[in-house]
Design brief:
Layout: H1 2-11, H2 24-37, H3 45-48, H4 52-65, E1 68-73, E2 76-77, E3 80-81, E4 91-96, E5 102-107, H5 113-125, H6 127-132, E6 133-140, H7 143-153, E7 160-162, E8 185-189, H8 192-196, E9 209-215, E10 224-230, E11 236-245, E12 256-257, E13 267-273, H9 277-285, E14 298-300, H10 302-314, E15 318-325, H11 343-349, E16 361-364, E17 369-370, E18 383-384, E19 389-391, H12 392-399, E20 408-411, H13 416-429, E21 432-435, E22 443-446, E23 452-457, H14 458-465, H15 467-472, H16 482-485, E24 490-496
Parallel strand pairs: 5-6, 5-9, 6-8, 7-8, 9-15
Antiparallel strand pairs: 1-4, 2-3, 10-11, 10-14, 11-13, 11-19, 12-18, 15-24, 16-17, 16-20, 21-22, 23-24
Length: 501
């Protein structure tokens, strides 16, 4: 109860007065103090830069909601449907959908700070867009974070519902929060891995305008590691990684294997021929996700790619803003001294898996880094012993994937260039509905989506969609603003209805 009270106090902290800062060093001092005051929570740009950061994302939503979309008049030929990529396209027009309703879906809602900031900004400054939002859905797998989100909006426990396997579920929030935006909020407990593997449905099939947000979610989603193996005939076999139990005791009474010495010495990484259909599909869509050579494996954001497929397939009229780390530093490992006998220290520093491109950083709230995902403490990794092997998806989820669960956080850097290329490929290959300008106003399907896929650095995104917010956070003395100068290792993937801005 005391911990919940401390977290609630943190939620009620006033935003930092950035314009009153003396400059860069003053900000670093405040940041360090702010970090020390946190209780078991990582700091994110959403939390640090509230409300300015969320306001910028809200401005993106406004642009998408009021965009004028170029649509192409199509005609049927013997070869099929002609699209705007063909030389004999007969006409094009512009369509504005400024009166249509909107769904906003935030994946991994954190403490609810971003949702509250976005809705407050829209309510105060863009009431027309705010009124068009049918619901702001927060999807999370963490009970702890869902409780914090309820606290932000002063919602009852009944405002969160689980969706374990078939479809969407949830209960609308009540208008009890300070700004009166809780009536837009709907919370759903759902694991993104279940969505990726078609055990749960994130979005129903609809052409409704939908904007999907994810702030620092990609780094926590399960990944797969693949490698290449040369064969004697000169061909190459694609291998996937599995984790096997190496010292399971036959008389173990528990349903789980808990390793001694604070690390998972009973787990071992092995490479087997690729059989995972989801991973095969992703590599078919984007072969450049394969390793560049036979010596260094590559981590692939399997769950993120599958989520993109789900969103595009279920909501062809959707826009996306995904923000995350594009680079992470190597772990700072504590090497044991010659006189040290601490097995836990040895486990921290030791790498027990093959290093690959896009290697995750494993760290805890005590700023202790671990050699690899297999070196994480047992409190964070408990593998069920029902089978002799387990997938990396299970490891990722147990170490901390999805946020808020384990003692450690597993952080994957995102290759935004490849992820954007993947998004572009599935958009190009997904049929979307275009209304023709004929007397019958019939709908025809064209194989080209009128969206623009773009990758920018976070600072560029904020300058584009938050010019006023950036100006408001500049130091009165030096003009320094951490919105542009901090978190330089973050990038933004946008799928936009606008051709350019």
């Amino acid at each position: 109860q005391q911990q919940q009270q401390q977290q609630q106090q943190q939620l009620q902290q006033k935003p930092i007065a950035f314009s009153s800062l003396f400059g860069k060093y003053h900000w670093h001092y405040l940041y360090a103090r702010h970090y020390r005051n946190q209780t078991g929570q990582w700091l994110t740009p959403v939390e640090l830069f509230q409300p300015y950061y969320s306001n910028s994302i809200a401005n993106f939503i406004v642009d998408e909601a009021t965009a004028t979309i170029s649509t192409t008049t199509t005609k049927s030929t013997a070869a099929g449907v002609v699209t705007n990529t063909d030389s004999d396209t007969i006409a094009s027009s512009s369509t504005s959908t400024t009166n249509s309703s909107i769904d906003v879906v935030e994946l991994g809602g954190g403490r609810g700070t971003n949702a509250r900031g976005i809705l407050n900004h829209l309510r105060r400054n863009h009431r027309d867009v705010y009124d068009r939002i049918d619901e702001y859905r927060i999807v999370d797998s963490s009970d702890t974070l869902l409780q914090l989100q309820r606290d932000v909006f002063s919602l009852p426990s009944s405002s969160v519902s689980s969706s374990g396997g078939g479809g969407e579920s949830g209960i609308d929030g009540m208008e009890d929060d300070e700004e009166g935006v809780g009536d837009k909020v709907r919370m759903v407990k759902m694991d993104m891995l279940d969505v990726a593997e078609n055990r749960s449905t994130l979005l129903s099939k609809s052409n409704k305008q939908t904007i999907v947000l994810a702030m620092e979610l990609l780094d926590n989603l399960p990944h797969d590691k693949v490698s290449l193996h040369p064969e004697p005939d000169g061909s190459t076999t694609i291998l996937q990684t599995e984790v096997i139990h190496t010292n399971t005791h036959p008389h173990h009474d528990d349903n789980s294997i808990n390793n001694n010495n604070n690390n998972n010495n009973n787990l071992e990484e092995t490479f087997v021929p690729l059989t995972d259909p989801l991973l095969q599909d992703i590599l078919t869509i984007l072969p450049s996700y394969l390793p560049d050579n036979e010596h260094i494996p590559r981590w692939i954001p399997t769950t993120a790619c599958s989520l993109l497929q789900h969103i595009v397939t279920q909501r062809s009229n959707s826009s996306i803003v995904w923000i995350d780390f594009d680079w992470l530093p190597p772990p700072t490992l504590v090497e044991p001294s010659s006189s040290s006998t601490s097995a836990s220290v040895v486990g921290v520093a030791r790498r027990r898996s093959v290093e690959g491109v896009g290697e995750p950083l494993i760290t805890d709230m005590e700023d202790v880094d671990y050699g690899c995902y297999l070196s994480a403490p047992t409190g964070a990794t408990t593998i069920t012993a029902n089978t002799t092997s387990t997938t990396l998806d299970e490891i990722d989820s147990d170490v901390g994937g999805g946020g808020g669960g384990g003692e450690c956080d597993i952080l994957f850097p995102t290759d935004f260039g490849r992820l954007a290329e993947f998004a572009g490929n599935i958009l190009h290959n997904t049929t979307t509905t275009t209304t023709t300008t004929t007397t019958t106003q019939k709908e025809e399907e064209t194989p080209t989506a009128p969206w623009t896929v773009n990758v920018t650095k976070q600072s560029e995104f904020l300058e584009t969609y938050g010019k006023e917010e950036v100006e408001q956070t500049k130091s009165w003395l030096t003009g320094y603003t951490p919105l542009l100068n901090d978190f330089g290792n973050c990038s933004v993937l946008t799928v936009s209805r606008r051709r350019s801005r």
